[in-house]
Amino acid sequence: MRRLRILTWHVHGSYLYYLTHAPHDFLLPVTPERGEGHGGRTPNFAWGANVHEVPVERLATERFDVVLYQSHRNWRVDRLNLPPALRALPAVYLEHDPPRDSPTETRHPVDDPRVQIVHVTHFNALMWDNGANPVAVIDHGVPDLGHRYSGEIERGLVVVNGLARRGRRLGADVFARARARLPLDLVGMYAEEAGGIGEVPLAELPDFAARYRFFFHPIRYTSLGLALLEAMMLGLPIVGLATTELPTIIRNGENGFIATGEAELHDAMRRLLADPGLARALGEGARATALARFGIERFAREWDQLLRHVAAGAIERAA
């Protein structure tokens, strides 16, 4: 079948990199200053030959099959700056997050039944008021880099970007209380602001993470983090808050531990620190879960099917 030409923006780098495993050509608009959403092929990913940069002034001369919006800014600003012919193309809105203002009463900014909304978790789809838009859910997909877990470092690893800046929603206070009682290391952008190590290059993160005894996910309310799934794929056991999508993924005593009580989470982490055999067994369970549910092949296949349905005008089937 013919490859589609997808116009989209660079919003979430890791997700975009995995999305481009779908068998289509992805064209990213860029500006001279490489501003928000216009970063193109950033150097921290091994982009494939199917990912292309297009200066924004040349968009009107390019052929596209589908426009894929990935942020509220894309929809409210970038869309309106597109030539009319591009605004009229079949469109998908990829929603990466749950609603911020109210978890139950927020209407999605896309109010057009011709536009397919895709959520990355069922929890997100449940929380948004999606109006009359057709809705689909495509679970994350991450590549299998092999079982690398050793757990030799008797500490827990937390991977969150900008934790101090993003506060309670991302669990900055949960992390601080846990770190006061347990050996935890934080990595990510601006991690130093919360007493963390700092940012680890993406290419080095798998081997870096695999040496930690467990992965701690302190996040109260956001979407499902790719870093957590990548850790599972490496074979790390997970400890986290039983919120958002995580209760559908982690089963206590099988692939990690989840709870809403912080004391219970602290006890679980102590168990893993004291019992490396238990940590390894739960990590193998976590990897099995990741392979079964979050494989990159399934992810690419579902995106391929959805994009082809939308391009063909079969949006109801995509829902």
Mean pLDDT: 96
Structural class: alpha/beta
How many strands, which pairing sense, and closed or not: the largest β-sheet? 7 strands, parallel
Q: Looking at the chains present, what oligomeric state does this protein adopt?
A: single chain
Number of helices: 12
Instruction: Provide the low-confidence segments as ranges.
Output: none
Radius of gyration: 20 Å
Number of strands: 12
SSE order: EHEEEHHEEHEEHHEHEHEEHHHH
Q: Reading side by side through the largest sheet, how are the strands ordered?
A: 3-2-1-4-5-6-7
CA(first)-CA(last) distance = 22 Å
Short description:
The protein has 319 residues and is of the alpha/beta class. It has helices at residues 13-19, 72-78, 84-87, 122-127, 163-166, 172-179, 205-210, 226-234, 262-274, 276-293, 296-311, 315-318; strands spanning 5-8, 25-30, 51-55, 66-69, 91-95, 115-119, 135-137, 153-159, 184-187, 212-217, 238-241, 256-259.
List the main descriptive attributes of the protein structure presented here.
32% helix, alpha/beta, 319 residues, 12 strands, five-stranded parallel β-sheet, seven-stranded parallel β-sheet, 18% strand, 12 helices
